[in-house]
Amino acid sequence: MALTRFGHDQPIASALLELKQIAKRWEAESPNDRLRQLREESAEYLWGLVIAHGPRLALEIGGGSGVSTIWIASALRMCSGHLVSIEPDGDRRALARRMVSSAGLQSIVRIIASVPDSKALRRMVVKGLAFVFLDCWKQDYLRFAEMLLPFMGPGSLLVADNVLSHRDKLSEFLKLLAGLDGEKRTASGIVPVGDGLSITRVLSTFSRAALRHPNELEV
């Protein structure tokens, strides 16, 4: 298998190039409905992070058209991992499925419309869930962090995009992470690539009651 930069084979490289072209056409036709694809420098950093961490199972919330999905899955293929990607918008979900298949990654990626319930999340943990990537509506970051962190064991990573470009909208999310860092439950940092990636490593197992809004944690 001939590999290009970042270990991508030709189908992956071609799919990513096609997604760039699709984004340009989409945004020209619907300027108020951009695809909002992950910036390339952020995707490259995310790829390296997944390679270094090597999770058996990763979860992506906000897969969009499939750019981040393909980058994450490309890394996971190199460490025998799998990805569950969530994208509620039907058109974007259909495009992501088509492009993941074009990239030859369909065997390790499952694209679904909504967040799994508590039982399904527990099953994902048993299967090795250790990496979560957030790139959805910014007002939902806090809710998803509170929902997912109690399921993530020590050593797991929670990564979120746009924490610099949308710092004001994500103030409560960042405040939650700072509080957990202060309690030594997590260790977080922000990497100034692209629109800003926050990386949070879970240090210890904790319950839903340990978070600030335990009454809002039902899936």
CATH class: Alpha Beta
Cα distance spanning the termini: 42 Å
The CATH architecture can be named as: 3-Layer(aba) Sandwich
Query: Helical percent range?
Result: 40-55%
Estimated share of beta-strand residues:
15-25%
Topology as a string of helices (H) and strands (E): HHEHEHEHEHEHEE
At CATH level 3, the topology is Rossmann fold
What can you see in these coordinates?
The structure is a single chain. By secondary structure, the chain is an alpha/beta fold. It has one domain: Vaccinia Virus protein VP39 (Rossmann fold), CATH 3.40.50. Helix content is 40%, strand content 17%. It has seven helices and seven strands. A seven-stranded mixed β-sheet has the order 3-2-1-4-5-7-6, with helices on both faces. α2 packs parallel to α3 and α6 packs parallel to α7. The longest helix has 20 residues. The chain is globular and about 45 Å long.
Secondary structure layout plus pairing:
Blueprint: H1 10-29, H2 40-53, E1 57-61, H3 67-78, E2 82-86, H4 90-102, E3 109-112, H5 118-126, E4 129-134, H6 141-148, E5 157-161, H7 171-182, E6 186-191, E7 197-202
Parallel strand pairs: 1-2, 1-4, 2-3, 4-5
Antiparallel strand pairs: 5-7, 6-7
Helix pairs in contact: 2-3, 6-7
